[in-house]
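Dear colleagues,

For the upcoming journal club I promised to circulate an example of a predicted protein-ligand complex. I picked one with zinc ion because it came up in last month's discussion. The inputs are reproduced below in full, followed by the predicted structure.
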Amino acid sequence: MAQIARITEFRQEMENWRQDIHANPELGFEETRTSDLIAQLLTSFGLEVHRHLGKTGVVGVLRGSSGNNAIGLRADMDALPILEENTFKYKSRDDGVMHACGHDGHTAMLLGAAKYLAETKDFSGTVYFIFQPAEEGLGGASAMIKDGLFKKFPVDGVYGLHNWPGLKVGEFAVRPGPMMAACDEFEITVAGEGAHGAMPHLGIDPVVCAADIISSLQTIVSRVNDPLEAAVVSVTKIHGGDAFNVIPKQVDLAGTVRSFKESVQQNVESGILRIAKNVANAHRCKTNVTYTHQFPATVNHEAETLLAAKAATELVGKDHIHHNLPPCMGSEDFSYMLNERPGSYIWMGNSGDPGGCFLHNPKYDFNDESLVWGASYWANLVQTIQPNTSKLS
Ligand SMILES: [Zn+2]
Ligand SMILES: [Zn+2]
């Protein structure tokens, strides 16, 4: 394919961008160096560049032959607060900040596609290259939308891509419907009355109450939720007490809920509120529950997913596309964009090794072998959805 042949010629350039971004990671909404680099490169390719949507977000605009159609391609730019354990020459220069989710690779691949499409101009209408900040839990996609992303850059469809360890390089996975779960966060404060550890009858013990709440919360998925509907309730934090012989006056719990459907999400939320309040009552404690909806579920639209699958299949062949990979209970803030515009989110292989590092691991690294596949997918997607009509006629 023309895209693969040409993009392979400048693969080393993409690798340099990727490793430079990897060595200089920046946390959500702090991607100033990264966005400077992106803006500089897009300008050098001849794109119109818009900055500061969602603080550090960048949008590159490229117009092809005549046509009013418009497509949005999105990459994320942020790193994670993780201490990198890799030792290669481009490892993070900022201890405690690391590209452990491959957003360095996502950025480099979208830049590669911009370079290729700017060179060939072999498509119709407009392509918006969306570089979003703060995907890792801070809602950068939502911040860009609030700053008018789709009003200033109206797209017919918007597309996302994430590398996926466990899938071989040169493979893709995509399906209509849910790809990633909705993510909620809850905090429960259990208040009792402190007392001497040897005289529990003189106080009200929040530790035993908190333990009971944690156990009872597990009955939401096992006893309240429809077994055919996916949901996760995980208590991931317990803080309480400072001494072995003192019953503390308060215990703080926190955790996360994952689901695909709003009805399931509501059911779990009301279950947590009900159990926390009533179990605390039984123990003479008081509770305060804060429940926050963080990200909605990432749900692929049918028609756009067929187009994404077509573009990927043309690239790698039908034997390298997975249509039935189960969705993941992790979450992704591209969901905000899919709630605004039709589109599709695809996974791209990062390695075939089942024992390899998964995302967010301190030894993870984006696989540079994937760069050509990802950039070529973007280019072919644009050319599939918005073919060059002046050339066809
Ligand atoms: Zn991540
Ligand atoms: Zn990620």
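Two points we might discuss: DSSP finds twelve helices and 16 strands in the chain. The chain has a mean pLDDT of 96.

See you all on Thursday,
B. R.
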